[in-house]
């Protein structure tokens, strides 16, 4: 099928796409979001503010404002600080009561790229499309991906269980998830979870993704709003430093600090949702990630944090990703 | 770094490896095990017998006898049935009391390729190397990988949490694990867990692996010893059909059948190890995987089983993997 004779590599690449009738072209993502590189910086609560999103835009990738932790007044402050004409998007988790108000605010401030999550893709997609927006929805299973496509989204973020923060209930890893989502839909798939360098991007594309969404790598950037204490914790983590906790309530991947260890112990004793909620209390995520209490606060991060060894400016991170990707692809044997 | 001018692609590939001082060449694996393709069919209890290992040898990959479920007498029967001169290896899990006897038997029958697991790599590696054997050890974390290298193994199998059957306690996914193991050691790394087709192989190589170990895909082969009922269950699974159970005892990934559902319910109620052991009883794995009781038996399989849609002969599976790999690599953009 791939005996392409003496044709040029580029022609072979295009032909190969046509022959496979594939949706796997990174151009679909760069065109969809008007970016140079097919990379999205995911929306992270208390971490993804106007500084990070703007730095991403300048580096040629899509930066999302993480609206999940923002009351409308705080979101407004962030939106006001984004320089006019900067190409940024927003992540709206649909499980909070403010989501409609957040969307309306974002529209008012000229945002036209929406990544919705943690709710039904049917809820706002048609309406956002009518407003001329581009919509992606985050999923954790091929079944949900098919529902997103039916709801009319432009792209799907397929997120594996290694991702930081709130997580799907299916516990499907990125390696197992991406090819199954790619096979289940005809629209572009953005891989998320466990991607920390250019090798990870190449792996995601090999699995059939057209773009990647990375959170953890950008949480450890100079421009993220994470508290310096939290950033240092990210750099210190090892491969086994995170844990998927609160599976019976809302699954979330955390650094195993003192707070998380207490929660895990309660879970292993078979604690009820009410007992867990009491232990959790309020404002733990803000306390840990924004205010820097690394003992009593909740520190949401992905499993790939073990790979992150330094804090860098966004521009440097993106430049590294581009060269790491090229190196990873160049060393791949063409045939087995 | 990769501006290689007008040189040929192959020369560019070799130069690139030299320039990166990388251990990432699939040749290291094909030479080490004297196989055509850098693919290992993993040792699976009740599934990997002489038929499957022999079929793998004929298809140009390394097939491992899964000694974990074999008392010495049964292992002897399998070893006797392998035609003389057939290039097969053996997986010896070190948690069973028979492992020394299993190794001695395998040596007597001419086996020279050993994949040890579930125990310390220090236990037998030096001795096996003195007997002229090639030794790989299975790990689930970069820390353990470094210990394997120190113990003198020839290669490391780095297995992510999506893998079927017995699993490490670290719950690190293949996507997060492989680059961290590759960075931690200088010897070749074989990626395992979540690899079901040629896209998965390409992804593993992009992450820095030099070979892959696949179990689930070959459990659903004509030549595996899995009961026909179990094979049909593998084909029927969806992406979310498996679960990592018995984390507090010995973590194992299973199909969520009636037996597994009962175990999971007990775990969520905070059952003790003794209560779980009582429910488990004896012989559940044999009952499910060899005898075909898909309700009351234990059905160990990887998360990637959702991708497997048909039973095929080993030769067909390998032929598909080779063409799928080539297609996945051909469609990868050279630059981001």
Name of the CATH superfamily of the largest domain in chain A = Aldolase class I
Largest interface: A-B, 76 and 76 residues
For the terminal residues of chain A, how far apart are their CA atoms? Answer: 16 Å
Q: Give the helix proportion of chain A (percent range).
A: 40-55%
Structural class of chain A: alpha/beta
Please count the helical segments of chain A: 15
**Strand tally of chain A, please?**
11
**Unreliably modeled segments of chain A:** 1-24
Gyration radius over CA of chain A: 20 Å
**What oligomeric assembly is this protein in?**
homodimer
**Anisotropy-based shape of chain A:** globular
Number of domains of chain A: 2
CATH class of the largest domain in chain A: Alpha Beta
Describe the fold and architecture:
2 copies of one chain form a homodimer. In chain A, helix 4 (72-81) packs parallel to helix 5, helix 7 (142-151) runs parallel beside helix 8 and helix 9 (198-206) crosses helix 15 (314-330). In chain A, helix 7 links the parallel strand 5 (134-139) and strand 6. Chain A has 336 residues and is of the alpha/beta class. Chain A is globular. Chain A has an 8-stranded parallel β-barrel with strand order 1-2-3-4-5-6-8-9, surrounded by 6 helices. Chain A has helices spanning 9-20, 26-33, 50-58, 72-81, 99-108, 125-130, 142-151, 174-184, 198-206, 216-219, 228-236, 258-268, 273-280, 284-290, 314-330; strands at 39-41, 62-66, 89-93, 113-117, 134-139, 155-159, 165-166, 189-192, 211-214, 242-245, 252-255. Chain A folds into 2 domains: 17-226 and 306-324, Aldolase class I (TIM Barrel, Alpha-Beta Barrel), CATH 3.20.20; 228-304, no CATH class. Chain A contains 15 helices and 11 strands.
């Amino acid at each position: 099928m791939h005996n392409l004779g003496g044709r040029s590599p580029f022609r072979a690449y295009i032909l190969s796409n046509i022959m496979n009738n594939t949706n796997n072209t990174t151009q679909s993502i760069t065109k969809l979001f008007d970016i140079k590189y097919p990379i999205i910086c995911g929306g992270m609560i208390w971490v993804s503010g106007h500084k990070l999103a703007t730095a991403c835009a300048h580096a040629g990738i899509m930066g999302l404002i993480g609206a999940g932790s923002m009351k409308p007044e705080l979101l407004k402050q962030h939106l006001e600080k984004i320089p006019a004409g900067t190409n940024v998007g927003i992540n709206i988790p649909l499980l909070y009561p403010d989501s409609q108000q957040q969307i309306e605010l974002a529209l008012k401030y000229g945002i036209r790229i929406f990544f919705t999550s943690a709710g039904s893709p049917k809820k706002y997609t048609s309406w956002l499309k009518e407003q001329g927006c581009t919509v992606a929805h985050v999923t954790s299973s091929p079944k949900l991906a098919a529902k997103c496509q039916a709801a009319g989204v432009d792209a799907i973020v397929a997120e594996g269980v290694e991702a930081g923060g709130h997580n799907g209930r299916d516990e499907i890893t990125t390696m197992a998830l991406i090819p199954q989502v790619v096979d289940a839909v005809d629209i572009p798939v953005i891989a998320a979870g466990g991607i920390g360098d250019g090798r990870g991007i190449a792996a995601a594309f090999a699995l059939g993704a057209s773009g990647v969404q990375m959170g953890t790598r950008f949480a450890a950037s100079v421009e993220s709003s994470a508290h310096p204490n939290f950033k240092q914790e990210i750099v210190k983590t090892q491969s086994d430093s995170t844990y998927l906790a609160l599976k019976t309530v809302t699954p979330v991947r955390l650094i195993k600090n003192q707070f998380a260890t207490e929660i895990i112990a309660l879970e292993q004793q078979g604690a009820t949702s009410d007992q867990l909620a009491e232990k959790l209390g309020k404002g733990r995520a803000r306390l840990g990630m924004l205010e820097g209490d690394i003992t009593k606060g909740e520190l949401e991060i992905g499993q790939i944090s073990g790979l992150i060894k330094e804090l860098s400016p966004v521009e440097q991170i993106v430049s590294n990703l581009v060269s790491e990707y090229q190196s990873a692809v160049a060393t791949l044997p063409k045939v087995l």
